[in-house]
Prior knowledge:
- By secondary structure, this protein is mostly helical.
- The protein has two helices and no strands.
- Helix 1 packs antiparallel against helix 2.
- The longest helix has 24 residues, at about 1-25.
Amino acid sequence: xxxxxxxxxxxxxxxxxxxxxxxxxxxxxxxxxxxxxxxxxxxxxxxxxxxx
Length: 52
């Protein structure tokens, strides 16, 4: 179970880093909102499928 939690947190950290890098390159507020929603959805999917 410990490895599963570590993998989950590592995946979330990667999502946050990628999201920040992409958001800095894009100026539109709407696009930033869409990227944030996609990252949240991916994080929830990872949690649901791997840690439920």
